[in-house]
Model the fold of this input.
Amino acid sequence: PPVVVEDFRGGSSVFKLQAACPFHAFAEIRLGARPLKAASIGLQPTTRGKLVHKVLELVWGQIDSLDALNSMDDKQLHHQVEQCAGLVLNKEAKNYPYTFTARFRDLEEARLIQLVLDWLKIEKERAPFNVKGREQEFNVTVGGVNVRLIIDRIDELSDGSYILVDYKTGKVSPGTWFGERPEEPQLPLYATVVGNNVVGDNVVGDNVVGNNIGGVS
Done:
């Protein structure tokens, strides 16, 4: 059937699915097909990843530059991250009342705090920057397809150029951003939206990617 809508949900995943398998894209985007969820103990990996994302969003809402980050001692930084993790977990626990026992919450909080602190150590090694945008939304048209893109973080460097940061907790590889049919077109799309001042894309992942950026698992 012909396409009767111009706006598609899913953001950059529309292009990711199309590049991987046109039938998969048709089934998921046009027909709304979804795989059955598999039962698991505790939280789904995607949910745990979203928790990290939300904590980082809150942290960088309070620490808005490298100077601000470096001005905090270890105790202050730990307290700041702990507060953010607590806020995120308190909100998420309402969605999973049987999962979030007192013991589970303590373990998840310790995981989030350590993960974020490890990442902030890597951030301290970067050149000076200011956080100019968090969860910034763009509505764009790509190849006649209207999509909504949300960039996790936009950092401005001292020369006015930008670094785009995307939070991932799985394995990532810059090689998937290139080629005739990129496997992961998300960051390249972000770069085209923000403009010519973009000098790098960084990913919070569990291996080293991007421009002089490391990651944590």
